[in-house]
Amino acid sequence: MSQTAAVDVAGVFSAIEKSAGLLDVTASRDVVLPILTAFEEPLSRAVIAFRVATNAQHEGDFDARFTLPKDVDPYAVALSKGLIEKTDHPIGDLLSDIQQLCAIDSYGIDFGVTSGFKKIWVYFPAGEHETLARLTGLASMPQSLAENIDFFNRHGMADKVDVLGIDYRSRTMNAYLRAPAECFERKAVLAMHREIGLPSPSEQMFNFCEKSFGLYTTHSWDSKDIQRISYGVKTENPMAYFARLGTKIEHFVKSVPYGVDDPKMVYAAVTSDGEEYYKLQSYYRWRSVSRLNAAYIAVRDQESA
């Protein structure tokens, strides 16, 4: 982040507007400003990140996200400010159920500059992982988490859940898991994809997975299946992993003025129809001690120390 960059509603909106413009995306003031204003007070202390994705589903949008302290209930704020609508769907009860069951370190929110409020992230305290055995006991949790417990146990991923992501727009949930190192090896990646009925990754993605620091699985309330597995890599040079990310995203990587010297996060996944895509996360304000960053990278950093 630039040393002169402002961390207030006007400054962050300006940065979002400029960064989205690198992708020919116009940030809507009517969409973005109400979100920034709703969380104006904690925004000044937040870790702030911008994210772009290479798949067709995200074409024409640009995501921003920032952290919130645990004393700010993001769902309650979003409802009270009209950022999302109250629902009878189980997703509407999920955050409250998690709050009653789990110790929470902090939160985060994610929104699109054209599509609006999307996700809430729940970060558990460092070293105090949640387990799938506990989380699957929640009535509001997607059933696919419990239906696939044998899969998670078999690959050693059931006992260390670091983060949950609740996507209110797509009505899905992500479970970020501290996975054993062997889960990122080619043989295990291929086996896991086959077990849950996903297409085999490309050679490029196999190579990417070998350098991953963690993974997350995506679940919905409409299916008992795991929708996808996504792998993450921390890097200061995203282009080192790809021949091309697409002209617009390549231009964004080379031109974004914020967080130039900070690590980037890149996530890769294969959809059920075989589309392979990547998400690139760059930071407007980076703090290495934040749970937004530390949930996974601590293990791999320790291994390489």
TrEMBL record:
Record keywords, A-Z: Prenyltransferase, Transferase
Tell me yes or no: is Transferase among this UniProt entry's keywords. Answer: yes
Alphabetized InterPro entries for the sequence: ABBA, Prenyltransferase_CloQ, PrenylTrfase-like_sf
Report the CDD domains cross-referenced here.
Answer: PT-CloQ_NphB
KW Transferase (keyword) present: yes
Instruction: Please give one Gene Ontology molecular function term for this protein.
Output: prenyltransferase activity
- Protein family membership: Belongs to the aromatic prenyltransferase family.
Q: What's the protein name? A: Prenyltransferase
